[in-house]
Amino acid sequence: MPSAYLLVSHGSRDPRPDIAMQQLAQLVSQKLPSGENLVGTATLEVNEQPLHQQIQDFAESALAYGYNYLKIVPLFLLSGVHVMTDIPAEITLAEKALGQDVIIDLKPYLGSHPDLEKLLMPAMANIKVEASILLSHGSRRSGSQQPVENMAASLGAIAAYWSVLPNLESRVKELVARGYRQIAILPYFLFTGGITDAIAKSVEALKLQFPEVTFQLVPPLGASAELADLICDLSKEEEKVFG
What we know:
Elements: E1 3-9, H1 15-31, E2 39-43, H2 51-64, E3 69-74, H3 81-98, E4 103-106, H4 121-125, E5 131-136, H5 146-154, E6 158-161, H6 168-177, E7 182-188, H7 194-209, E8 214-217, H8 225-234, E9 240-242
Parallel strand pairs: 1-2, 1-3, 3-4, 5-6, 5-7, 7-8
Antiparallel strand pairs: 4-9
Helix pairs in contact: 1-8, 2-3
InterPro entries: CbiX-like, Sirohydro_Cobaltochel/CbiX
Pfam families: CbiX
Keywords: Lyase, Metal-binding
């Protein structure tokens, strides 16, 4: 049956992530089969409407175009509370409001895609440093950081976290103590926004704290055709069907 697609992100008061989301939705739409390329965006937080209402509104709009099957892809990099609890709960509320008119299919979250680390490899190949730090947002949910640790190891980097320990400064201190003087920092975030601005400020402070060290800050993932490919892959995976 024809499917519509809804990309769900965290949401931000900074306008840049929303602009990037719209660009990404267009890229995904271009890669989907003709007649099945209706793609929308929604946010879990920082929106006038709760997520379940955004889902309901998009589903009703899609239904008017002949789409009665809605695939939801969470664009989150970690399997924290938002992915495991909040989004499924919001989908359940939307499904109750929609009844049997629309089937909602929750797809795996973006960070679960096994090829995601390949999007970081070009940046790694273009920098010449002695050590690298993969900086993720982090989550207090038990076990949610293991994929980041695994990805860091496969990239030849070490993991650090913005919201939990070990943080960026502590990791830099470890590397400096071990004699490294050229350090790359790879923000494991989707788009430029408030947090990546704060990371840049932290790196400037680290430069003052460790003047003997050269730091290279890599941009976040960003909207790209390669990222759109991964999202299309996830839309084919089985997860949980509501309805």
